[in-house]
Design a protein that fits this description.
147 residues, alpha+beta, 7-stranded antiparallel β-sheet
Length: 147
């Protein structure tokens, strides 16, 4: 099995602390900035960064729905990690300064891909599809924090 990786980034016109705090706010903000690809959103424990347990279903394609139960950690300042209890998927959000009053938000998701021909197609197309979903989510986040 080869590892599959999708990375998306965006410059947001807000301070890094504001962007990170919004990302880590699973109670109020995160549910608002998710795209229609996410459904059944539910905070099961916590709700603010480290120690949060959150559930959603991610519909990446018309046929592919992933049931996610994510444990949230903050291993370092400006970094939020979501590990899926139901799969090998790990999503890391990193927020860093990008000039006066601006932030760079980067989201990277990795998982163990399938083998064979299915794995080839997954490694080829899944990162692009997930990249589009996260690009829209980051746009929604930017709209939320740039108010």
């Amino acid at each position: 099995m080869a590892q599959v990786e999708a990375t998306t980034e965006r410059i947001i016109a807000a301070d890094p602390e504001a962007v990170f705090d919004a990302l880590a706010d699973y109670k109020d903000v995160r549910g608002k900035v998710l795209t229609p690809h996410f459904s059944e959103y539910e905070v099961r424990e916590g709700g603010d960064g480290e120690g949060t347990l959150v559930h959603w279903k991610l519909q990446a394609t018309s046929k592919r729905v992933r049931d996610c139960l994510l444990e949230v950690t903050e291993p370092t300042d400006g970094r939020l990690v979501e590990k899926d209890r139901n799969s090998s998927m790990v999503t890391t959000w990193t927020v860093t300064p990008a000039g006066e009053g601006k932030s760079k938000a980067v989201v990277t998701t990795v998982w163990d891909g399938a083998g064979g021909i299915g794995g080839f197609f997954e490694r080829t197309f899944a990162p692009k599809g997930l990249g589009r979903i996260y690009d829209e989510l980051l746009q929604n986040l930017a709209t939320e924090v740039e108010k």
